[in-house]
Amino acid sequence: MILCVRASIILAARKNSRFLKTRTCSSASSIRFERDPESRYSFFDGQRANLNSNALKLVFCTILEIFAENDLMRSTYSVMERAISVDLHGIVYVLVDGYVSSEASIKLLDLLLWIYTKGSMIELSLSTFGKMVHNGFAQDVKNCNRILRVLRDRNLVTKEGEVQEALDLLLQMQERGCAPNDVTYNVLINGLSKKGELEQATGLIEEMLNLGLKVSAFTYTPLICGYCKKGELDEALDIGLENLREAFLLFDELRSGHLICTLEVEMIHQGVLPDVFTYTILVNGSCKMGNLRMAKELFDEMLREGLQPDCFAYATRIVGELKLGDTSKAFSPQEEMLAKGIPPDLIIYNVLVDGLCRLGNLKEANELLRKMVQDGLVPGHVTYTCIIHAHSENGHLRESREVFYEMLSKGLSPSVVTYTVLIHAHAGKGRLELAFMFFSEMQEKGILPNVITYNSLINGLCKVKRIEQAYKFFADMEEKGLCPNKYTYTLLINENCNLGNWHEAFRLYTQMLDRGIQPDSCTHSALLKQIGKDYKLHAVQYLENLK
DNA sequence: ATAGGGTTAG
């Protein structure tokens, strides 16, 4: 059988090369490939280069066809991956053009789209899907679901538009008779939940139930996740109100606990049992909302249910223990994991290194790094960023730079977070020249600064009263399409108040309200800093009520 | 190997 297939491939390849030679000799530019996006080659290099690239596509497609027809999907996969790795994206034209048998092209196009979507190659996914639809190859709901995920994620990353585009596709699917299924809805519910559109997400669950579609852990998990994130945002509001802080915390605890329990009960009511994914989110959400007791209870509940926690679940638990400041308890799951044959991964180590750094145990953190390397793991950019951060927080700017250069020498690419940590530290300590150096260096490397990066610079500039320059960066970020947040405004309001520029401070305050940016009590404190202490709290409460 | 949910750093 294998020999037979091999022989066919060789024969097919030979047949193709003859076919192509004929084409070349007759000097007819391939009719079949007129629409080839790589046709610009022929512009510079004559027909030969163009045909060579096409020849390669035909050979690849022939091999793929033979593998697919014989159901050798593993081999098909690796050949397809090879074709993509040498940028032969044009094979999609061969596949939709009817050059290979329709049975094989369906399989091959599915596979091609799968590879593109799995690798989040957004434009290639969309263009391939478009060609498939155009040629009647995309009737499969699975393909639609893959594209839905891509559209959803693109929307979430760029923050432009809505998950709307994906919702539109859902409508189109319904119109074309390609019935959306439970997976379709799950993808959309996930997108809406991540955007905080929880009511709309709940509405889709109702729609699913009405349609008799299967509601599962896949459906509820993102929604629970969304509620957890909302709780986290709410909690941020009470920073700075130390006589009211505890009351807020208690309130949040009750509310979030209640919501999470309701959802959990609802899931069980629907016959959906929470699994490791669900529990991980619940534990994480409880941690983030500061309810560490509930986090622990949920983790234990997961064990009682007979579920086997994995690295994700353990990482979440360790974060919780570290928040409680208990180093020994944070390290104990490691033994448990080893006993169960789940070796701690890079993220587990990152969490532990960061935890030790935050507790000021830089020495222990370094020992852990050595152990990590012994275990065959390589510290990554997050690991280094944690250590750089630790040095910065301790005011050791020189050390933080040294670790940064060590990181570069290991061939690791710093992220926007790494640079932001460095910029924040240097700008905050008045070392603005170094901060600016890092700021331009990151952009030269194509790492885009974000709101936090700009806030770090604005903070440093305000501190040394270079407010004009702070405004320049404020304008610069807006030009780049970055939206200033409540911290950006609070920094500028604060400095204007320090300088007695009340008019400007209130102008900024009005502007942020107009833009729908919620101020917090820090903004209000900054604004009212000069008012007598007795009146201050009343004034803050008054403003809080206003919004 | 052909869809869908979860973990770390500013």
From TrEMBL:
<dbReference type="Pfam" id="PF13041">
    <property type="entry name" value="PPR_2"/>
</dbReference>
<feature type="repeat" description="PPR">
    <location>
        <begin position="216"/>
        <end position="247"/>
    </location>
</feature>
<feature type="repeat" description="PPR">
    <location>
        <begin position="181"/>
        <end position="215"/>
    </location>
</feature>
<feature type="repeat" description="PPR">
    <location>
        <begin position="380"/>
        <end position="414"/>
    </location>
</feature>
<dbReference type="InterPro" id="IPR050872">
    <property type="entry name" value="PPR_P_subfamily"/>
</dbReference>
<comment type="similarity">
    <text>Belongs to the PPR family. P subfamily.</text>
</comment>
<keyword id="KW-0677">Repeat</keyword>
<dbReference type="InterPro" id="IPR002885">
    <property type="entry name" value="PPR_rpt"/>
</dbReference>
<feature type="repeat" description="PPR">
    <location>
        <begin position="450"/>
        <end position="484"/>
    </location>
</feature>
<feature type="repeat" description="PPR">
    <location>
        <begin position="415"/>
        <end position="449"/>
    </location>
</feature>
<dbReference type="Pfam" id="PF12854">
    <property type="entry name" value="PPR_1"/>
</dbReference>
<protein>
    <recommendedName>
        <fullName>Pentatricopeptide repeat-containing protein</fullName>
    </recommendedName>
</protein>
<feature type="repeat" description="PPR">
    <location>
        <begin position="275"/>
        <end position="309"/>
    </location>
</feature>
<dbReference type="Pfam" id="PF13812">
    <property type="entry name" value="PPR_3"/>
</dbReference>
<dbReference type="Pfam" id="PF01535">
    <property type="entry name" value="PPR"/>
</dbReference>
<feature type="repeat" description="PPR">
    <location>
        <begin position="345"/>
        <end position="379"/>
    </location>
</feature>
<feature type="repeat" description="PPR">
    <location>
        <begin position="485"/>
        <end position="519"/>
    </location>
</feature>
<dbReference type="InterPro" id="IPR011990">
    <property type="entry name" value="TPR-like_helical_dom_sf"/>
</dbReference>
